[in-house]
Amino acid sequence: MDHYRPPVGTPVAELDTPCLLIDMDALEHNFQRIADTYKDTDVKIREHTKNIKSPLLAHMQIRAGGSMGGVCSAKIAEAEVMVEGGITDVLVPNQVVTEDKIRRVAAMSKRADVTICVDSEQNLRDISRIAETENAVISVAIEVDTNMARSGIRSVEQGVHLAKVADGLPGVKFKGVMSHSAMFGIPKDENERISEALKYYRQTLDVANAIKAEGIEVTMVSSGETFSYDQAAEVPGITDVEGGSYALMSTSLPYMEGHFQYAAKVLGTVVSTPRPGVAIGDIGYRAIGSMLNRDEPVLEDVPGTKFAGIYDELCVLESDGDMPLEVGDKFQLRSSQQDLTVNRYDNYVAVRKGVVEEIISIPGRGCHN
Description:
The protein is an alpha/beta fold.
């Protein structure tokens, strides 16, 4: 979207649309919830910046508390943005296999503690070789596949083997293990959410404990996600939780609404009321991103009216009776996947009590490599 920077003090009702709002009261509530949860525990948050894409917001959580002082970034380019933004500890929870990207990691490793994940011996040996040529030491962690069915080792024995290889390679610093577990769909009740969370934490810890039994030091056992954030301390040995969605919240996590508030929303304007009970808004796919698992955006605070459809540049809103929205009225949509929505914008328009408080840049948008 355009590099939109409205003046501080502008009322929300006067903003150009579509634009990405961030409610500072809700954001601070979410950061404080994390700080309070981890205040007296050994486990801490490692905020996943694929959602927020902003070093400034990452620093806000670190200052609020409950953080291990670093973050988790999905791509090398995102990690570079965080390091350039003053974050000194970054976990990349994915494999880095091409020579140019490993060299970029080596360069970052001279400025910050950057850990990348591995699941193959050949990748480990390539990292070692390149790190030596760059006169660097690259930290690695073994990815454990719990339920994502993507990358990662599939057995404890694989993890122990890779740890032994990593522990003996020059230019490589073995840190431990990581996993990123998801709750697919909505749990039927709170007991299911908790039991799933504990299961994935324990599965990750099983690998870490087997590695420790071989006499190899493990300093990182990074796991979890927003849905499981509050259960990490119930499994001693977990060091940090890779939560991301909690900061801005997402309509795909309605069962977490009692824990976190919706901070990021896309502001739109009604551009047409073509027939009774229908309004057309200026928020399309290009402004709010695609949908996760077919979850739809949710219209906020317009009783009797709901989101009903979306196109490239427009969306459809429908009411049960008379449409309360008129042409020119503003409305807000909550996104089903904030990382894709945030990636559409250069800036957050930070608001408090209905007026613009500041503009926060999003330097991590578009970091695809």
